[in-house]
Amino acid sequence: MTTQSDILAIGGGIIGLSVAIELKLRGANVTVCSRSFQEAATHAAAGMLAPQAEAIAHRALFDFCLQSRSLYPEWIAKLENLTGLSAGYWPCGILAPVYEGGIGDRDAGLDPNDAEPPAYWLDRDAIQLHQPGLGPEVVGGWWYPEDGQVDSRALAQVLLGAARELGIDLREGVTVEAIAQDRGRVSAVYTNIGPLRADRYVLTAGAWSNALLPIPVSPTKGQMLSVRVPQAEAAQHLPLQRVLFGPQTYIVPRRNGKVVIGATSEDAAFTPGNTPEGIHTLLSRAIRLYPALKDWAIEELWWGFRPATPDELPLIGPSRCENLTLATGHYRNGVLLAPATARAIADYLCDDRRDPLLDAFDPRRFDLPSTPPSPAMTSALTYPSPRSPRPERETAETLLHRLDDPVAIAGKTFRSRLMTGSGKYRTVEEMQRSIAASRCEIVTVAVRRVQNNAPGHEGLAEAIDWQKIWMLPNTAGCQTAEEAIRVARLGREMAKILGQEDNNFVKLEVIADPKYLLPDPIGTLKAAEQLVKEGFAVLPYINADPILAKHLEEVGCATVMPLGSPIGSGQGIETAANIRIIVENAKIPVVVDAGIGVPSEAAQAMELGADFVLINSAIALAKNPPAMACAMANAVEAGRLAYLSGRIPVQGGASASSPLTGRVGQ
């Protein structure tokens, strides 16, 4: 089947339907295709309209959210008039209670008193007057009278009804398989029912966008539940009248007695289902905030997938295809930003107008530079990697700035490209000083050795500030895939116990060779496949095997970690040729792990185009580990800058650095 329309929206969630309705109202002929309108993330959302309560720190995002919130009354009225249905819009205000010592939590964002809309601080007595029954640990809170809520499930039905009333062509049960491109334009969208064609396209596929285009949108899983106010209480007066946006939880009362509680935030890929731990965490936080909930009946459990970007800002605007526009990556604010996004896309497509505020959300901010390499660079077969081409005229200042560019692993961003280990140090204090000197943000921890209090690992877990350092549990000591899978599960629980509840990272090591400690490729691939299915972000330690690296990427690993030489050997980068091939072909970060002995070898790994290096023995066993850690950090930065700069071609003969013409005597 082939169909042609003015505009085709790919994705039928709240953003896709809102954009389609706005375009239709402006006279466009619109088609929306969706695998299932009922499976859209909209149905999982709590529906808070809370730019102030969320204390959004990014100025452009905050202003865009305020703009969208102001559009809500008129937008909802328009939709409800079209359909005769209610979207459950309730401009009820939001309370943001805080606990002792938590008043400063909001200082990291915009000061509520500096924002244009009003916000009021309530002390312990005043906040209990606004909402009786808050937990005894609540010492006060902010009152945001202009924030509110909408019933997201009801809104989804209203949007579907409005689309049908307007005659929008809704295609449900359509699985998009590919976006075909020809000479910088989308030529068709290939689906399970055949190709769909349009003059212009809008990608609104939310957390699933990355499956269709290589854009940095990944799923962040959120578990939620609802409870029901007892009928006897609801008949007299709903005891909970305010949306409560508390520390790490929110409670959203509906006017029909349903109370929504959310939400976890998990880098679990598309792992479905509720977990006992997730629901327990939600309930314990909610009961602490509003104790009466402990006696109310649980009504429903569910989950959804937020579309996250590395900087947590949406992608709204043009793509590299001239007839493809993006409207995705709204993360926690899809419901709130629906009307403003719809208006912005319609302004752009129908009137060629673009609000300067949207510059912060330009999808092209994540694009690699597109300037082609010079002929000289083309002849240098090894530099730079096609994964990160170098602009010819990029200034030194720009390159230095790019050293601080964040790099994402499984949706979590890091600025330091040096990972360090936590083993082999002579003392815990020496380890702590070395980690600080390395400026690293990721530290590996051997799960078995910590759990067994192996020598050198006593109290290790408590010695590191896990609020500042991201734990990378590793399966060191595992000889089989089955062992590694069990230890990975223990590692995830260890991370949660130490406060990193959303940490699903694991450095996968399967090493059956006791002499050379070389990783088992078959066991590694087997374990990786299972752990990916269980929602882990898998970082596998491997031989520098480009074929294995590609297989691991294809099964869903978050990185590949080829060795430079045998672990702990200090032999340096003996596998440079293969690492170069892995870097050239990988679409996920490459971490050079094992064998680095001195800073020049760390720099060499980065010059090959690696995204990170992981160093343990070379630091821990140095005569002065903190000083060596600092040297390694500087070497990693130097190697990265050299890679971005682009080395000279390797030549067979000499080439004078001074010209041979114009010499004295000529």
UniProtKB/TrEMBL annotation:
The active site is at 507 (schiff-base intermediate with dxp). Residues 6-347 form the FAD dependent oxidoreductase domain. 1-deoxy-D-xylulose 5-phosphate binds at residues 568, 594-595, 616-617. It is an enzyme of class 2 (transferase). Residues 364-393 are annotated as: Disordered. GO terms for molecular function: flavin adenine dinucleotide binding; glycine oxidase activity; thiazole synthase activity. Its EC number is 2.8.1.10. Keywords: Cytoplasm, Oxidoreductase, Schiff base, Thiamine biosynthesis, Transferase. It holds the Pfam family ThiG. It catalyses: glycine + O2 + H2O = glyoxylate + H2O2 + NH4(+); [ThiS sulfur-carrier protein]-C-terminal-Gly-aminoethanethioate + 2-iminoacetate + 1-deoxy-D-xylulose 5-phosphate = [ThiS sulfur-carrier protein]-C-terminal Gly-Gly + 2-[(2R,5Z)-2-carboxy-4-methylthiazol-5(2H)-ylidene]ethyl phosphate + 2 H2O + H(+). GO terms for biological process: thiamine diphosphate biosynthetic process. This is Thiazole synthase. It comes from Oxynema aestuarii AP17.
